[in-house]
Request: fold
Amino acid sequence: MPRIPFIAGNWKMNTLKASAIELAKAVAQGSPRSGVEVGVAPPFVYLDAVAQALAGSPVLLGAQDAFYEKSGAFTGEISVDMLKDVGVKFVLTGHSERRHVLHESPELVGKKAAAVYNGGLILVHCVGEKLDERDGNKTLAVVEAQLKELNPQSIADPARLVIAYEPVWAIGTGRNATDAQAQEVHAFIRQTLGKMWNPDFAGRVRIQYGGSMKPENAKGLLDQPDVDGGLIGGAALKAESFLAIVNAAK
Ligand code: PEP
Reply:
């Protein structure tokens, strides 16, 4: 069964309200209605405004994080129900900046992933090795451990699970993985999902590549058999470059 590529923009802690709306409108206007799924994940405070800017378009609204509890005394946190309330359809978990800058533990990442999936949203679970781990030949072990933060017993719908392979050394550095390096890890991820679930399930899960994907390198990466889209940081902040990647995926 063919997997529809999914290109998602992670805006991180960028834009202000007016620029978020402007960017969302341009992405909505330029995104095709078929052949590729497109999403944007703005900062929390602009979700509502961006939802309105995307209204009537096929572009999915995403969130960059979510807390695992439903409600209560968790100052500063945002629940999955709150995200659904403003139209969010997908949520990132385990992004390298949350793991390595905000020091989220594998246990916390796993709890957040369970809450996102159990809340009915599309879970985009990010995995990827740091440079010293790649140099130490630990890439596959690191990625496997991060995949095992997910619980196959509670995740049954492959359409609501997306894995983003993002080598940490490639994020925001301008240095992307080569097509072959990406394909090697993506194939390993699919094989691991096949063992955790089963090969049919694994064959339906989309695996995005992330890490300095841009219009100039997108086609080569997206042409790899196990690369089913991209999670885009820097290049998602300009509609022109983001849409060029979207079109390369189509
Ligand atoms: C990201 O943070 O998800 C990412 C891939 O960033 P960049 O495209 O800027 O490397």
